[in-house]
């Protein structure tokens, strides 16, 4: 069903927003597609799937550390989104709504079964210059360390805020928390990571 399920994430797909499209324009386009899909336009919903499947897959992979599980959760996310499309409120960004669904699916899985350590995840590395490859590996190591050290809530806050480049209000909305609570989670997560990195440099 999805390109993520076949390992083709990160590539340009038909219906995906161009890289130079501003975020505000993208949000407006996604909202229009969602409203058209609410009206029964299947093609519009398929375009939304094309836009979000790659980033949602990597988001779920970061959370679960399991390639195949992430595929399953991704499929479930889109099935639920389609079934509950009538509940989407155009007042908010579609991305916030779809990420909320994906996040809840991952949380439900965590409640049933402890996730694999992120170091055991399948590593999908695209071809890149050496400097970009090194930066990607360092970022991957940092997120893996964050997964080991932080609580689920701290990791979620860190990922939504930095990994998905969301502001405090958006992060709070996706996590169903108050902004003040998210601030505390971010502060504790950053401090815990900083303390660990400082120990490593001193050893």
Structure report:
- By secondary structure, the chain is an all-alpha fold.
- The chain folds into 2 domains: 124 residues, Rna Polymerase Sigma Factor, Chain: A (Orthogonal Bundle), CATH 1.10.1740.10; 76 residues, Winged helix-like DNA-binding domain superfamily/Winged helix DNA-binding domain (Arc Repressor Mutant, subunit A, Orthogonal Bundle).
- Helix content is 68%, strand content 0%.
- It has 8 helices and no strands.
- α2 crosses α4.
- The protein starts with 22 loop residues before the first helix and ends with a helix.
Number of strands: 0
Query: Radius of gyration, rounded?
Result: 17 Å
What is the CATH class of the largest domain? Answer: Mainly Alpha
Count of all domains: 2
Helix-strand pattern? HHHHHHHH
Note the beta-strand portion. Answer: under 5%
User: Strand count, sense and closure of the main sheet?
Assistant: none
Quote the average pLDDT. 75
Shape: elongated
Low-confidence stretches: 1-21, 114-136
The CATH topology of the largest domain turns out to be Rna Polymerase Sigma Factor, Chain: A
CATH architecture heading of the largest domain? Orthogonal Bundle
The helix fraction, in percent, is 55-70%
Pairing-aware structural class of the strands and helices?
mainly alpha
Oligomer state equals: single chain
CATH homology-level superfamily of the largest domain: RNA polymerase sigma factor, region 2, helix turn helix motif
Count, helices: 8
How far the N terminus sits from the C terminus, by CA atoms, comes to 48 Å
């Amino acid at each position: 069903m999805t390109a993520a399920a076949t390992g083709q994430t990160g590539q340009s797909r038909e219906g995906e927003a161009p890289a130079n499209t501003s975020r505000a324009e993208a949000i407006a386009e996604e909202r229009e597609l969602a409203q058209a899909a609410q009206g029964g336009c299947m093609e519009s919903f398929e375009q939304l799937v094309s836009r979000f499947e790659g980033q949602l897959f990597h988001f779920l992979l970061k959370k679960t550390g399991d390639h195949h599980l992430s595929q399953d959760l991704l499929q479930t996310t889109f099935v639920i989104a389609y079934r509950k499309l009538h509940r989407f409120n155009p007042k908010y960004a579609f991305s916030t709504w779809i990420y909320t669904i994906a996040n809840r699916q991952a949380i439900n899985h965590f409640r049933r079964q402890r996730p694999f350590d992120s170091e055991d995840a399948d590593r999908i590395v695209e071809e890149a210059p050496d400097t970009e490859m090194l930066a990607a590996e360092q970022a991957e190591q940092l997120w893996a360390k964050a997964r080991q050290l932080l609580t689920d809530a701290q990791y979620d806050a860190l990922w939504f805020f930095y990994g998905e480049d969301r502001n405090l209000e958006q992060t709070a909305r996706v996590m169903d928390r108050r902004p003040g609570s998210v601030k505390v989670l971010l502060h504790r997560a950053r401090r815990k990571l900083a303390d660990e990195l400082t120990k490593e440099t001193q050893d």
